[in-house]
Amino acid sequence: MDAISEFLQPYKGIVSAAAGFATIAQFFSGAFVCNDIRKAGSAEKFPFLPFIGGTVFGVLGLQYGVILRDETMIPVNLVGLALNIMYVCFFYLYTPPHLKNNIWFQTGIGGACSAAVVAYVQWEDEDLVETRFGLILTALMVYLVSAPLLDLGTIVRNKSVEGLPFAIILSGTVVSFLWLLHGFIIHNAIMVMQNLFFFVLSAFQLSLFAIYPSKPPQSNAANPQVAKKQQ
Length: 231
Fold this sequence. Notes:
The chain crosses the membrane at residues 14-34, 46-67, 73-94, 103-121, 133-152, 164-186, 192-212. This protein is an all-alpha fold and 231 residues long.
């Protein structure tokens, strides 16, 4: 770790600036997913978790910025929170009527979790809250990054990555890599381990797009021309 840190020291300013810029840019990746939803005409095959999770993380990230009195984290998370709220509203508009109750349920769970954690911050000892709140954020990030893998069985069966948020996964891979480098530079072992995990997991999800197409292959029954040729 020391050797890597020493090698990266001359690029400290560049890496830090790139990590900050990429994090802000990542917030806009949801717009590409929204565009895919618009093209599909429905959000039925798209996961809602990245949007509601991003909203929850925006609330908690903003709270963490307040705890740290970080003048950079506060405005960045305000932007992220505002964008994710818009994404949630957009997703809801394109959700079929029979699934809207599920969206309300997930939104309620996210809101309740956010409120509970923010309330915990007000109660916790000031000397402990920074570390413990950081662990809570880490656990949330692990869940958000790994959640798409819950559909891995479906992806393999359908031989398609349809519904996976490519833009969000790609941006997450880039952002986690930059923060991994930043962790090496500042000799922060926790940051290195966190972002190494996120980077490997995101890169694995990204590799699925190289293995499977974005649309499931058509069966012979659904494609008369193919069936005719095979006869």
